[in-house]
């Protein structure tokens, strides 16, 4: 049975009606209450407490700002691979010019353009590598740094 109010406590009385078709159900419920030594109010309060625990502060509605795990930004693995591939291509072209395998029309312009592109892509690779943190990209960045220092771009 629900506990009785103590001292100056006020008991709130809630009432509701049950359609007549549920009378057999309510009789069975009264038998269960008697068998367990509890009143209807005890069961009702347990059900209410359970329902409130599950559904408060609202029926599971998420805020617009909530990002569930499947919508979280993924690591930019494809982007870092493309940037690294681009850097390797630039390094390969620079090496080909250095060894004489390739002869650009304007070597000074080619070198300046290649170093500029290499520098831009290295900055992006470094930013992406802070997220991904893979050794292969760190080594590539070290190589790019060495090339840029040789060409006095740093």
Q: What's the short story on this structure?
A:
This protein starts with 22 loop residues before the first helix and ends with a helix.
Structure overview:
By secondary structure, the chain is an all-alpha fold. It folds into 2 domains: 9-61; 70-150, no CATH class. The chain is 62% helix and 0% strand. It contains 5 helices and no strands. The protein is rod-shaped, with a radius of gyration of 37 Å.
Which characteristics define this entry?
single chain; 154 residues; 2 domains; 62% helix
Tell me the span between the first and last alpha carbons.
Answer: 82 Å
**What average pLDDT do the residues reach?**
84
List SSEs in N-to-C order: HHHHH
The tally of strands reads: 0
Secondary-structure-derived class = mainly alpha
Summed up, the domain count is 2
Give the biggest beta sheet. Answer: none
Computed CA radius of gyration, to the nearest angstrom: 37 Å
Overall, the morphology is rod-shaped
**Helix count from the secondary structure assignment:** 5
Strand content: under 5%
Low-confidence stretches: none
